[in-house]
Design goal:
The protein is an alpha+beta fold. It has a single domain (3-97), classed as Frataxin/CyaY (Metal Transport, Frataxin, Chain A, 2-Layer Sandwich), CATH 3.30.920.10. 33% of the residues lie in helices and 35% in strands. It has helices spanning 3-24, 85-97; strands spanning 28-33, 36-41, 46-52, 57-62, 65-72, 75-78. A six-stranded antiparallel sheet has the order 1-2-3-4-5-6, covered by helices on one side. The radius of gyration is 13 Å and the shape is globular.
Length: 106
C-alpha cells in the first residue's frame, strides 16, 4: 500500500466514525484536525483516533488504553488482539457511556 492509499483509507475511516457517532445519536462532539479525530462525550471522556503514517497504522486512545490497528484484507484490525476497528470502538465508547451503543461503518 502506498502512503497516498493509506492516507485516503484513514481519512475514509475517520469520516465513517463521525457518521457512525451521528447515527448512534449519542451525546458526543466530534472534532477533526488533520488526521486526528477526537470524540468527546458529555462527561468529558475522550476517544482520540489518529493516523500513524510511518507505520501505516490507525491508533485509538481512551481511558481504557491504546490500540494500534493495521489494514488486513480491507479491515482495520488491532495488532494485539485481532479485534476489528469498529467492534473495538463500539466496545470502548459503550464502556465510557455505561450503556451499549453500536458504531459501525455505513
Amino acid at each position: 500500500m502506498t502512503e497516498t492509499e493509506y492516507l485516503r483509507d484513514v481519512a475514509r475511516v475517520l469520516d465513517e466514525v463521525q457518521d457512525a457517532v451521528d447515527r448512534a445519536q449519542i451525546d458526543a462532539d466530534c472534532s477533526l484536525s488533520g488526521l486526528v479525530l477526537t470524540i468527546e462525550l458529555d462527561d468529558g471522556a475522550k476517544v482520540v483516533l489518529n493516523a500513524q503514517a510511518p507505520t501505516r497504522q490507525l491508533w485509538l486512545a481512551a481511558r481504557s488504553g491504546a490500540m494500534h490497528f493495521v489494514q488486513d484484507g480491507g479491515l482495520w484490525v488491532d495488532l494485539r488482539t485481532g479485534e476489528e476497528f469498529f467492534a473495538a470502538l463500539t466496545r470502548v465508547v459503550s464502556g465510557l457511556l455505561g450503556r451499549p451503543v453500536t458504531l459501525r461503518a455505513a
